[in-house]
Amino acid sequence: MTTDELKNLKAKTIVDARGTACPGPLLAAKKGIGDIESGEIMEIYSSDEGTKNDIPKWCQKMTHEFLGIIEEDSYSRLFLKKA
Amino acid sequence: MSIELEKQIQDLQKQVSRLEAGTKDQLSMVVFSGDLDKILAALIIATGAAAYDMKVKLFFTFWAISSLRDPKKNGKGKNMIERMFGIMLPRGSKKVKLSKMNMAGMGTAMIKGIMKKHKVASLEDLFVIAGENGVEINICEMSMNLMGFKKEEMIDYPQMTICGVATFLSDAAESKIQLFI
């Protein structure tokens, strides 16, 4: 997805994992995904650089669809759709 | 010919289902080291695997068991050697040291400061997170006896069992990932 498409997405839930290091964002994602239904969108905020590689891998394993990343000044916004 | 093929296919199907039943989405880890850095690595991998919805089973043995001691608790009925071991070994996760660059405790104190700065969870926090995420901790009974540790001096942890090597072997045999730290 392009950045504009991502910006127009309405996330069902936003998980703010900024200020946590590995494996914090991953655990936050696991917790957050339990609160939404299949097909709904979750957004994760993370200031941990490694999360940008980790969350797509996690999505692949858990069969969630990874939609993309928007870079902000001091953190990233990661989007995914629950399987 | 076709009967033979059918038989072969049936055999293969049986083998596949046996293999599928044999390995679970499970991680088994031997946690042997009593070093802060190594136990940290073990707990980070364990909690990460829990985020992957894997079943996680940690087998704590030898020096690693010190990190599970609760400094506020005492074991009862210890003989003199067991008491001595109790005094010499670290009393809990706050007291375990780095494997390298400990420098009489200075290095360990420094790394804890750096971990705080980088918002890395402390070992104490990681045990809580692991407990919340269903990570099982199995403690080797033989090692506990050797070092004179008693079950009542271990931390309060939701899924903690005292067991033997058979528990680890059964868990490891059906796990996709096995590690020794």
Description:
Chain A has 83 residues and is α+β, with helices and mostly antiparallel strands. Chain A has one domain (3-81): 2-Layer Sandwich (Translation Initiation Factor IF3), CATH 3.30.110.40. Chain A has helices at residues 3-7, 24-33, 51-62; strands at residues 13-16, 41-46, 65-71, 76-81. In chain A, strands 1-2-4-3 form a four-stranded mixed β-sheet. Chain B has 181 residues and is of the alpha/beta class. Chain B has a single domain, classed as Hypothetical Protein Ychn, Chain: A (3-Layer(aba) Sandwich). Chain B is 46% helix and 16% strand. Chain B has seven helices and five strands; from the N terminus they run αβαβαααβαβαβ. Chain B has helices spanning 2-22, 36-51, 80-88, 106-117, 123-132, 141-147, 165-173, and strands at residues 24-31, 55-60, 136-140, 160-163, 175-180. Chain B has a five-stranded parallel β-sheet with strand order 4-3-2-1-5, with helices on both faces. The longest helix of chain B is centred in the first third of the chain and has 21 residues, at 2-22. Chain B is elongated. The model of chain B has no long low-confidence stretch (mean pLDDT 93). The interface between A and B is medium-sized, with 13 and 13 residues.
